[in-house]
C-alpha cells in the first residue's frame, strides 16, 4: 500500500515542484511564459497547483519530497507532526537532518532512502524495525516507502517518502 501511495505522490509532486520552479509540465519555463499561460488558460495552472498542494496536504501519511540533491523540498502536515520540523524550517536542509532514521535494535543509522531511490531508480521500502528520531529526540516506529520523482522524460528530479507511525 505504501508503494502505491509513493508512486502516486511522486506523480503529484512532479507537477507541484514543477509549478514551484516556474516550469510547466510541458517543459516551458520562466515567469513570462507562466504569466501568459495563466492568462491564456484562465487560471487553470493556478487551480492545478492549488489542487496538487491540497491533495498533498490531505494524505493521511507523512509525505516528504526532496530535490535531486537530497534536500527537503516539501513536507505535508503529517510529516511535520511526525518529524517535529515545520516545512519552513526543513526546506533546503538535507533529508538526513530532517528524517533521521535508525534501526530500533542496533541503533545504527539507516541508509538515506532518498539517495537509495535516486541511485537505483527503483522504489524502496524501509527495513522492519525502523525508528524515526524526531527533532525533540522522541522516537517513533515507522513504516516507509520511497520512490523516485521523475519528469516527463524519465529523469530523476528527486525522491518522495511516504511514511506513517507504526508505534502501536
Can you characterise this structure?
The chain has 168 residues and is an alpha+beta fold. Helices cover 40% and strands 24% of the residues. The protein contains 7 helices and 7 strands. The chain has helices at residues 2-21, 31-40, 44-58, 77-83, 87-90, 95-98, 113-120, and strands spanning 62-66, 72-75, 100-103, 124-125, 130-133, 139-150, 156-165. Strands 1, 2, 3, 4, 5, 6 and 7 form a 7-stranded antiparallel β-sheet that branches. Helix 1 packs antiparallel against helix 3. The radius of gyration is 16 Å and the shape is globular. The two termini are 18 Å apart. Mean pLDDT is 82; it is low at 1-8 and 22-28.
Number of strands: 7
Quaternary state of this entry equals single chain
Q: What does the average pLDDT come to?
A: 82
**Gross geometry:** globular
SSE-based structural type: alpha+beta
Fraction of residues in helix = 40-55%
> What is the H/E order?
HHHEEHHHEHEEEE
DSSP strand content? 15-25%
Radius of gyration from CA coordinates: 16 Å
Number of helices: 7
- Kindly, what is the distance between the CA atoms of the first and last residues, rounded to a whole number of angstroms? 18 Å
Uncertain ranges:
1-8, 22-28
Largest sheet: 7 strands, antiparallel
Amino acid at each position: 500500500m505504501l508503494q502505491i501511495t509513493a508512486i502516486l505522490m511522486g506523480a503529484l509532486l512532479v507537477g507541484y515542484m514543477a509549478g514551484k520552479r516556474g516550469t510547466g509540465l510541458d517543459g516551458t519555463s520562466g515567469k513570462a511564459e507562466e504569466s501568459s499561460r495563466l492568462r491564456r488558460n484562465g487560471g487553470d495552472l493556478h487551480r492545478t497547483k492549488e489542487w496538487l498542494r491540497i491533495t498533498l496536504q490531505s494524505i493521511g501519511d507523512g509525505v516528504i519530497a526532496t530535490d535531486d540533491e537530497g534536500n527537503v523540498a516539501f513536507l505535508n502536515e503529517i510529516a511535520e507532526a511526525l518529524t517535529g520540523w515545520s516545512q519552513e524550517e526543513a526546506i533546503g536542509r538535507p533529508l538526513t537532518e530532517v528524517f533521521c532514521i535508525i534501526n530500533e535494535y542496533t541503533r545504527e543509522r539507516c541508509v538515506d532512502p532518498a539517495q537509495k531511490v535516486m541511485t537505483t531508480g527503483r522504489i524502496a521500502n524501509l527495513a522492519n524495525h525502523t525508528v524515526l528520531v524526531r527533532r525533540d529526540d522522541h522516537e517513533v516506529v515507522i513504516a516507509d516507502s520511497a520512490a523516485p520523482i521523475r519528469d516527463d522524460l524519465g529523469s530523476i528530479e528527486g525522491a518522495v517518502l511516504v511514511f506513517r507511525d507504526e508505534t502501536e
